[in-house]
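Q: Sequence in, structure out?
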Amino acid sequence: MDRVDYQALIIQDIINLESRGELNLSPWYQRRSVWSTPQKSYLVNTLLEQKPIPAIYVRHYLDLENSKSIKEIVDGQQRTRAILSYCKNEFTARHPNYSKKLFYSQLKREEQQTLLLTSIPVGYLLGATDADVIDIFGRINSISKTLNPQEKRNAAFSGEMKQFCLAQASSRTPFWRQYEIFSATDISRMSEVLFISDLVYNLMNGLSDYSPTALNKMYTEYDDEFDDRDTIAAKLDRIFDIIGALSPEKITDTIFNRQPIFFSLVMVLNEIPRISTKRLSTIINDIDERFLSEENRSPSDDTFKEACASTTQRISQRRIRHDYIKGFF
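A: Exactly. Output:
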């Protein structure tokens, strides 16, 4: 193989190539299309939000029998199929301008034009033989790292619940950093997405054990549709607005910078109709002081401290922390 030449094709160009029979989406070494509708919808949503997707790799060859120049998709078949099928009105996707998912035909003319003019990165494999293509295809699809449960969940799902939790977590990145709930390393391993996922599960089902199995079930159940997204989003916005009104040190310099205890604070605030910033600040100070003090401790103080130090994600510990914190309100 000579080299890889990186260029870009707009989506309209890809549509034109397919309509002219100049796009080979099914080379003999490619597996058949297996993407689910939520996966395809998520890919299109990424494009509608003008966010990047991985490059598509193409081998260019001549079909002498039919006098055509053919572009063979070496890697990116399913991405390409998803784009083409959306533009054929075969499924809906979420556009940032609308609350509901839309077919391509339901987009405004200027929104359709923006999508069709979106550039897709393409790597052209120049001078690639069949052996080169097989080697490259194998290399591209074998690069991986050991994934934690949330990263596996993120890779396995592409639907409504995954998109919701990811958007809720990523939109609060300044908060996570300013209030030191998650470090840069935590965020790089999707710890904040796991936190939001667990929080969403508890907001929907009541205070519960942390359970990877339960979170996977939630992602599965709400993969196609998540009708309560606006309700849960409003709850999260309200809670984080309340906490965000505090000066950062009220979290960073107290026990509430520990993720399990911060989780308990969030769940308690969900049950409190209204509270002033001053009152919340006082409560946080009181709890922190009693936690750190060795004098005049009550049995409930000791029980709370034990619940913060032991297995912190079980329902028994969560319930103790929840009731103790709520008692200050």
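The first strand starts at residue 3 and ends at 10.
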